[in-house]
Amino acid sequence: MGGATVSAHIKNVPHRSGMLGFSLAELMIAITIGLIILVAVSAVFVSSKRTHSTQDRLARLQENARFAIHYLTRDLRMAGYTGCMSDGTNVNNTLNAGSFVYNPSAALEGLEAAAGNWYPSSATTLPTGIKSGTDALVVRRGDPSLSISISKSMPNESAELNVSSVTGLVDGDIIMVSDCASADVMQITSVQTASLKLQHNAGSTVTPGNSTQKLGKQYGTSAKVMKFTANLYYVKDKTDPNDATKTIPSLYMQQNGTESELVEGVEDLQITYGVDVSGATSDGIPDKYLKAGVAGLQTASEWARVKSIRIGLLVRTLNDKDQDKNIKAGSNYDVNGHTYTISSADKYQRRVFLTTVMLRNL
After folding, report:
1. How much helix, strand and coil, in percent to the nearest 5, is found in the chain?
2. pLDDT digits (tens, 9 = 90+) for 202-236
3. Is the N or the C terminus of the chain less surrounded, counting Cβ atoms within 10 Å?
4. CA pseudo-torsion sign 185, 186, 192, 197
């Protein structure tokens, strides 16, 4: 009886021959499908990364352009600022002659195509390394961020200035003293901290130095002292820090002769000036836009009719990793009426930006 029981138990064991796993064909199909999915996912990832990188470069390009336009616009709106004076032409200059940078008689000057003369001064001093074919601009003005009161009236035109504070001033600073009738530009030769006095002696112990100690008038307690700034804007190339065989064009500024880089990627700067030519009586509205130095925009009297400035910038990405771009040699960009031509093929992305600034003080 025991034997019969064992035999029945053996017969009831499940048959496992149908549970042996995948066949080779099924495995090959599964691997193929997996590879197809992996390739598709990889393609999506690469495409997404490329799109992100492109958008990141474009975002930086646009941010650089916005900063450049904001900086230029803010400075230009202050061109010719002399405090409470309504007529910015009554400015006396005591600085040594030949100092193009500090010439206060011209609040605004332009240079066309990085060559020739500045207008309206006819000066020939060009920024070192300025990029060929690009324009340049000088903005001169008082700086209201530092405004110090005259604490005691001058006894004569050559007297030192008694001021309420000397904070923020050092020997060699160029300053403007101004009331509502006139202004003088001079260089501080000595800051007297203890007695709160500013000396402006004649000579050239500092650059550019004063040609005379005598100012245009005796200033009283209604006058203010502020720094005088001359900002020169231009484009030049610098060596790419990541690849010494390449260069990066940038917008530079010289403030009172000291150079600093403002914005990378600015490839071209083109400037036109809105001139009011409506006749003997100015209506303050620009009738046409001219380049610096052309007929109608050469003399000081013609520049006195400039009421606005139109700025064109060509800004590019900082590297040439955009594989989907291929800018051909000879490709052209219209930058404020000037045709900028790409000399050799590259993969940089570029955008043109244009803005117009109304001048408040000219």
Report:
1. 20, 35, 45
2. 987 778 899 999 999 999 999 999 999 999 999 99
3. N
4. negative
